[in-house]
Amino acid sequence: MMQREVADRLAAIPGTRDYGLLTATTQMHARVENLFTLAPESFSPPPDVYSTVLRLDFAPRFSELDVAPAAFDTFLRTCFAQKRKTLANNLRAAGHAAASLQSLWAADIPAQARAESLSLESLAAMHRALRSTGVQEPQVQEPPQEPAAEKVEVPSEAQEEAKAHSAASGEEA
Questions:
Q1: What gap in Å lies between CA 173 and CA 170, rounded to an integer?
Q2: Are 53 and 76 in a shared domain?
Q3: 27 & 82 share domain
Q4: Where are the beta strands (DSSP E) in the chain?
């Protein structure tokens, strides 16, 4: 059971507002079925949101779609990187050459298509086409991690008082 809006995103179909990377990734790993929705009044105390019960039947589709899991997950992240960009622009931004994209573009996919409008089957076909030409999959850059901050000890009040007492008595702390 989860918030209805999240459940809607998990079970969304291509071309809808809720369809995105979360949907595609979830549906690559499991079959999602909306069972029923509960109103806030069904709970005590009532939450501010509706809740939906989902069934997730875990059955990865990687072999069915003939794609390697890690490579296809990376490809999906690339395709959905920026929601307002077209699929071609997201792939070019990830390092794919415009010429190779144009030569491999499937006839049934509009040139201005966004990843949100394509089924997993269409995305898998595009991924297989890119890999079959020997085009190396650009690596998704993880954001750089900041170095661990140096630990600076801040003396507590008790430590300050002990130092002041030792200084007054001529002892070294």
A1: 9
A2: no
A3: no
A4: 2-3, 30-38, 51-58
Residues 54, 40: Cα–Cα separation, whole Å: 17
User: What number is the average pLDDT over the span 86-105?
Assistant: 84
pLDDT at res. 16: 93
Q: Round to whole Å and give the CA distance between 155 and 44.
A: 48
User: Cα-flanking dihedrals φ and ψ of residue 65, to 5°?
Assistant: -90, 0
| Amino acid present at 81 | A
DSSP class of residue 115? G
Total-model pTM: 0.71
Give yes or no: residues 26 and 79 share one domain: no
Beta carbons within 10 angstroms of residue 126's beta carbon: 22
Per-residue pLDDT, averaged over 144-157, amounts to 56
What mean pLDDT is predicted for residues 95-114? 82
The pLDDT of residue 131: 84
Residue 128 inside a domain? The answer is: yes
- The amino acid at residue 152 is V
Read off the tokens for 161.
């008082």
Residue 161 placed within a domain: no
Q: Which residues pair with 54 in a beta bridge?
A: 34
